[in-house]
Structure formats: structure tokens, C-alpha cells
Specification:
The protein is of the alpha/beta class and 298 residues long. 33% of the residues lie in helices and 30% in strands. The protein contains ten helices and 14 strands. The strands form three sheets. The protein has a six-stranded mixed β-sheet with strand order 6-7-8-3-9-10, with helices on both faces.
């Protein structure tokens, strides 16, 4: 399990992370989304022990990560920009990993490379971004990690390679109960594989929920009333957004329930239909309202 407790990080005199707290259960896939500069990569570098927080702790299992080689040896990390020794050949990088990670398996890497098809005699500086991402993922999976941290792992990959990477991750989780923490701009990628997703904005966690919980609670409703709608409809606590087109009102709620439906019916409701709401739309509405949960909702 990953436990992030009240983590604050200051870079260049600016508070990049502000008392961030998250819990990621073992064997689950946790997604982190947010705009550029929101603090995603900084949080990931705290999780992997690259950065030491000014306040708070990051723990894997029951041990703090920073300055703890034994814990770091259990963490696989695929960065957005993977900076290896550019002059090295891939086979030399493999040797470096064998010396650095006690559980590194060359046999496993070669097995994965049947899928990735990397030329071991090629130098890192000559690899494309997508090839570097394949190399980083292959190396990280070959240390048999207990925790896998991925920063934009599908960046630079074509659609077929993205599907292959997704399949690899799901197999790791199923067979070895690996805990995966993944940051991505591509909400469609997260929707396919994540159990829980959080949104970070300006260094703060604004929303966190399970995908199933989000889909159950957040709905877009198309409603028509017999006469005029309630004058205070926009101010109802359940309503995140309200738009009107003629007699039709489009209502987005973050607290969908039968009680809400009955409340609408008492106001002269004559039509109620659900409208498809994408995961991206859900996060836009959620972040816009500043919804906040102290722990993951299941």
C-alpha cells in the first residue's frame, strides 16, 4: 500500500504540493490527473523518494520511502522523460540494473523484449521517445516491483503499443498484486484500467473517488417540468451545473439518488432522462465545484 500523509513540497520558493494525502490499497490501479503544472510529477517524485517533502511522509507498506534503498528496490519507476546514460548501449543498461537491483531478472527482460523488440546493441541516445518508454517499462517490470509508478507511460506510443502496455499492467496486477500509481493526461487510458482516480489542481487534491463510485453518483439529467422549474434549482446542494434549452433543463449532479429524483418529481417533473457523461466531463464538473474527499470512496 502507498500512503501519502499531509505532504507539502516547496520548489523554487513556491509551494508546489499543499498537504496532499492519499491512500492506495495494495493490488489496485490509482490514476492521477491534472493540468500541466498541477503538481503531478512532483508528487510522483515524492512517492519514488527522489524528493524529500518539507512536511509529511510517503510510506510504502510500513516504511518511509525517502533515503531508504530497501524500499526503493521494490519500486519500479517509469518517468515522463527517461534519462539514462545516453552513451550506453541497452545491453550495458541491463548490466547496470543487474548491479543495482537485487531482484532484477535478465531473463524476464528478454521475455518482455520479444514484445518490445528493442535492439540491445543500440545506444540510448539513438532511441525514439516511444522506444525509451518501452525500455523503461521493461526495466521496471524486470525488477519484480511491488509498486509501479508511471508518469505518462503511454506518451510516444502508437495505439497498438498502448494496448500492449495496458495488457502488461493488467497481467502484473492479476498475477502479482502489484500496486500501480499512474499519472496521465489521457482520461480514456485511465478509465480502462484504474480502480480509483484523483484530480490534482494547483498542488491540492480536489477530487478522489472510485470510477464506479463516480459513475453512480455523478449524472447528467435531462428534465422537463410541467410548469416553471423551482426558482432555487440552481442553488440545490445536489446540483453542480444547470443549463436550459427551451423547456429542457440539463442538470449535472454529484449526488444522484432516488431521493433527488423524488425531490424533482414533487416540483412537477414530467420528463427525466439520463444523458451520457464522459469521464473527462465528470472531472471538469467535479474540479469546478472543488469537491473534496479526505479518503477514497468505494
Amino acid at each position: 500500500m502507498i500512503e501519502i500523509n499531509e505532504v507539502t513540497k516547496i520548489l523554487g520558493g513556491r509551494e508546489v504540493l499543499k498537504r496532499v494525502s492519499l491512500k492506495v490499497p495494495q493490488g489496485t490501479v490509482f490514476g492521477l490527473v491534472g493540468e500541466n503544472g498541477a503538481g503531478k510529477t512532483t508528487l510522483i517524485k515524492c512517492i519514488t523518494g527522489i524528493y524529500r517533502p518539507e512536511q509529511g511522509q510517503v510510506r510504502v507498506g510500513d516504511q518511509e520511502v525517502f533515503d531508504n534503498p530497501a524500499v526503493k528496490a521494490k519500486i519500479g519507476y517509469v518517468a515522463d522523460q527517461n534519462q539514462y546514460f545516453h552513451g550506453m548501449k541497452i545491453k550495458e543498461v541491463l548490466r547496470f540494473y543487474q548491479l543495482s537491483y537485487p531482484r532484477f531478472s535478465g531473463e524476464r527482460f528478454h521475455g518482455l523484449n520479444r514484445l518490445f523488440q528493442l535492439d540491445l546493441n543500440k545506444r540510448v541516445k539513438d532511441l525514439s521517445k516511444g522506444m525509451k518508454m518501452r525500455l523503461a517499462l521493461g526495466l521496471s517490470l524486470s525488477i519484480y516491483p511491488e509498486v509501479l509508478v508511471l508518469d505518462e507511460p503511454t506518451s510516444g506510443l502508437d495505439p497498438l503499443a498502448k494496448r500492449q502496455v495496458t495488457g502488461l499492467l493488467l497481467r502484473e496486477i492479476e498475477e502479482r498484486r502489484v500496486t500501480v500509481f499512474i499519472s496521465s493526461h489521457h482520461l480514456s487510458d485511465l478509465e480502462r484500467i484504474c480502480d480509483q482516480v484523483a484530480m490534482i489542481s494547483q498542488g491540492e487534491i480536489k477530487y478522489v473517488n472510485s470510477l464506479e463510485g463516480m459513475k453512480r453518483s455523478m449524472k447528467k439529467l435531462q428534465v422537463v417540468f410541467r410548469a416553471e422549474p423551482p426558482q432555487d434549482l440552481r442553488d440545490w446542494s445536489e446540483v453542480l451545473s444547470l443549463e436550459q434549452v427551451g423547456r429542457v433543463h440539463y442538470l449535472v449532479t454529484g449526488e444522484y439518488s432516488q431521493a433527488l429524483v423524488e425531490k424533482l418529481r414533487r416540483c412537477g417533473l414530467v420528463l427525466l432522462e439520463e444523458v451520457d457523461l464522459s469521464l473527462e466531463d465528470m472531472f471538469i464538473y467535479a474540479a469546478g465545484e472543488g469537491l473534496r474527499h479526505d479518503e477514497v470512496l468505494v
